[in-house]
Amino acid sequence: MKKYAALFLLLPLFLSCSDSGIRSNNPYLPNYSVLIDLNLNLPEYSNLKFVSNAVLIPAKGVRGVVVFNTGSGYKAFDIACPNQALASCSTMTLKGITLVCPCDKEEYSLFSGQGKLQYPLKEYRVQVNGDVIRVYN
Asked: How far is Cα 75 from Cα 67, in angstroms, rounded to an integer?
């Protein structure tokens, strides 16, 4: 009987696997491998020490990666328009605390990655270790 009780106690552990809420099923964006380390002591990344600041990292991911300080942590998103096929206009631009897609003028929040269309921004995982931020998938 104790074996069955232990099994029922351990069952939720096996059923609670998660992908950290990061979706990767967008048909418009390929899944490229990303691994970026940002040292906040370097001048080009020091703005990330302050809330609501973002840094663009070109030539990573699909079209580049933006890293954003939310105040309670960091978020990292690809700057490819998530609701457009890859084209000359599908690289988003930074506008304050949003990314704007030039193809359809849709805006996406850097706090949540959400816009008004079907797919949110392609999000990458972020790990902070001291003054180094690691962005990966």
From this structure: 6
**What CATH code is carried by the domain that includes residue 13?**
2.102.10.10
Looking at per-residue pLDDT, the higher value among 18 and 133 belongs to 133
Quote the pLDDT of residue 25. Answer: 85
Q: What is the pTM of this model?
A: 0.82
Q: By C-alpha distance, which of 68, 110, 65 is closest to 91?
A: 65
Domain that holds residue 49: 2-136
> Domain tally for the chain?
1
Residues 100-113 as b/e (b if ≥16 CB within 10 A, e otherwise) read: bbebeebbbbbeeb
Position 10 pLDDT exceeds 60: no
Q: What distance in Å separates the CA atoms of residue 126 and residue 99, rounded to the nearest whole number?
A: 19
